[in-house]
Design brief:
By secondary structure, this protein is an alpha/beta fold. The protein is built from 10 helices and 12 strands.
Amino acid sequence: MDPDDASTGDPFVHPALFYKGDEEYLDGTVPFVRAGLDAAGPVAVAVPGPRLGVLREALGDAAGDVRWLDMTEVGRNPGRIIPGVLRAFADRHPAGRVWIIGEPIWPGRTGTEYPACAQHEALINLAFAGREVSILCPYDVAGLDPVVIADAHATHPVVIDRDGERASDDYAPLRVISSYNRPLPEPPDAARMSFDLDALPRVREFTCRWARHLGLGQGPADDLEIAVHELAANSCLHGGGKGTARIWAEDGRVVCEISDAGTITDPLAGRRPVAMSPSGGRGILLVNHLADLVRMHTGPGGTAIRVYMRV
């Protein structure tokens, strides 16, 4: 099945809803929720906090039959949304169609976050291909950059606006995945160390020491230590046996990058739910669950993964 082909008869439904203001938002979302409830299907809504209240009020008593999630919290790292929000809900209901509203991009998302958001929207099509799942993605056209709206046409096979519903002529999710796989900008100032398998304990010490120095609290620093250890271990096992760690402060976050000579070929790496056991199988998935943001660039020249933690 070609992910860039919108005419394959795939049971997966993934429309973008372009709205301006509460009235158009409710005109697009309320019928979607009610259709799911009328079909006795499980329905979840994961949207930014203020939108939760608007939609809940419009649904009245029916709101009690819906699973509600604040996307600014559960989806602050876009890499966590597929495994931790969408698949987490859909996989609990394997029989029949599942209905989800997911709004991962809202005014206020930063330029650092947005590439991961765009790739997430494209990857949904790969993650749910062949499944009886409907995911409606609202876009606030009054508050979002035109580039975001153009990308939404490329990541959604169907678009809905005040003029109705139609197939997207620009649907090309693989192009979006590729176009945002960009080299990451160089940090202005970073501490760094090289490592191999024998040096993994020193990578953890390096991360903890610099995380505290840069102002990260104990809990986030512990999470960053675990995440960096997972990535550094992956570098030693799959990335040529060695790598480089760098850490710095940026826009109210502590950022740690692990780079190596390997190439990640699976576009859904870190986004498939797997057993979160100490025996393995965690890798990038665990990092996505721990971090406030994960950015990655991979190609023939190597891979760099950045983990962002809020101070």
